[in-house]
Amino acid sequence: MGRLMVIEGRKGAQDAKRGKVFTKVIREISTAARMGGGDPKGNPRLRLAMDKGLAVNMSRDVMERAIKKATGELEGVSYEEIRYEGYAPGGVAVIVDCLTDNKVRTVADVRHAFNKCGGNLGTDGSVSFMFKKQGVLGYGPGASEDAITEAAIECGADDIVIYPEDGAIEVLCAPEAFEAVKQGMLAAGFPPLQAEVTMRAENDIKVEGEVGQQVAKMLDMLEDLDDVQNVYSNADLGADAYQ
What we know:
Elements: H1 11-36, H2 44-55, H3 60-70, E1 80-88, E2 92-100, H4 103-116, E3 120-121, E4 131-139, H5 145-155, E5 159-163, E6 168-173, H6 178-187, E7 194-201, E8 205-207, H7 209-224, E9 228-233, E10 235-237
Parallel strand pairs: 8-10
Antiparallel strand pairs: 1-2, 1-3, 2-9, 4-6, 4-7, 5-6
Helix pairs in contact: 1-2, 1-3, 4-7, 5-6
């Protein structure tokens, strides 16, 4: 999981998806500002959230309004962080991170997605031990493996992963080192296509056929929920999962 995917669709669907992305980013900016203050220089989580906003072409005015609402300068909504854990079909472990102003609504929506697709919502800690929080910087095909590896080592990265099937490269680091590694790679002339602190499974589970399609449907349903910020799983989906 976590690899970039290209999805084709109608403009209306793309616009709706873009709106959901904006909603998720604004909630993350608001929560980060409320918890750590409105100055991104002293708030790494807010800085990362604002970078996500810039990556989806969100204006700075929109981000500044979200920060002001979160810090009390403007009237706004307060969001609570909640994590749900459980299993999808095939024994696939799933983590769902949410930001919500209504816990009753959120847990009902998340449970519905699990139940509808043959999964089971578990208890806190039931699957999170299978995942590791990690900083990831992604580079596309054609990037220089040797040059990126050398720069990543200099910047303090923990590991470099090469995907021989398409030449993509990922630079991995500890969450607390993410900002330093990212800035170091930028200074070295290697801006990443994707940069985030995420949850990575220690081991993936291969799921194919009908089970793979059920898992893909469940992950999509969860991703589409307004209160859901991120969905993580250890599913290694087969090529037929989205047929």
